[in-house]
Amino acid sequence: MGSISKILLVLGPHRSGSSLTSHMLETMDIFHGPKELLMGSSKENEKGYWEYLPLVKLHEEMLSSLGRSWHNPPRNLSEEDVENLQSLFGIRAKQLVLEMDIMSEGKTWCFKDPRLGSFLPFWKKNLANRACYALVTNRHPFAVAASLYKREQFPAVFSYTLQKRILASINDHLDFFHSTHQINYEDFFTRPEKVFDNVVSFLQKNELSTHFSRDVFLQEVLDPSLMHHGSFQEEELASFEAEEGILELASKWINEKKENKLLKANLRKSNRELRLSLIARYSENKIESKKELLHEKNCHPSV
User: Fold this and answer.
1) Would you say the pTM of this structure is higher than 0.85?
2) What separation in angstroms does the CA of 171 have from each of 13, 76, 129, 137?
3) 188/44 same-domain check
4) Which runs of E-coded beta strand occur in 68-149?
5) Tens digits of per-residue pLDDT, 42-71?
6) What does the DSSP 8-state code read for residue 43?
7) Cβ neighbours of residue 127 under 8 Å, at least 6 residues apart?
8) Range of 109's domain?
9) Residue 237, Cβ density class (10 Å: 0-12 exposed, 13-18 middle, ≥19 buried)
């Protein structure tokens, strides 16, 4: 293997523009992993997520080991949490880094996953002595709340608190990186050339890439229809600063919602079985009534 690759992390809460940012970076020759191992597209992200599936799987298992989930990440990892995660997942993390080093063939490579921001203390251990840089994406909380409501039916207060928690974790560890750059999602659509030029300047300054095409970005990456979901009113978020334990409560709500779906399915099944039972009973009663009527006619022909 030649020179050791530089590493770029795309950090940001869910629905904050990290996928759009990574798509732009892909056109700038930043390696995200082989296409067959990247998360595919969906109706929410038709152009793809640019998330390395082994990384996402690792993060999901780490969350599970903490009794957490993507919608209820840890506030702050304690030193004990980090040590436990390291003992359980450290070897796999180092293996992922080695794989990316080999596959990128000396080019800058990138990890992108919204869960990444919650595990920076863990990754600081596994990326020690490496040249690491970060692009941090953010989006107006109203838009994030509306987007997560459309996709997951999450309450606005939940989405806001989730965004705030992930950003707080990211901001606590930005001093680890050689250099960072902030990207506002709305700027992609109000001043796209400026966003592109600023990212190019950041990459050039830190010798992360030399391959850029503004036309490709504007014509193939940027999609004006992605500028949506800004309908929540300010008063809906005005009192959220004082909320405590909202993600835990919301996660309970989500789990109850799943249980309610199962309950409704069981009720539908029970209702269907009851309906069939009633129909069968009605049919039996009708047959019995006909039999009794025929018997009466036979016994009393004049009836």
Assistant:
1) no
2) 12, 12, 20, 12
3) yes
4) 109-112, 132-138
5) 887 888 899 999 999 999 999 999 999 999
6) S
7) 7, 97
8) 7-243
9) middle
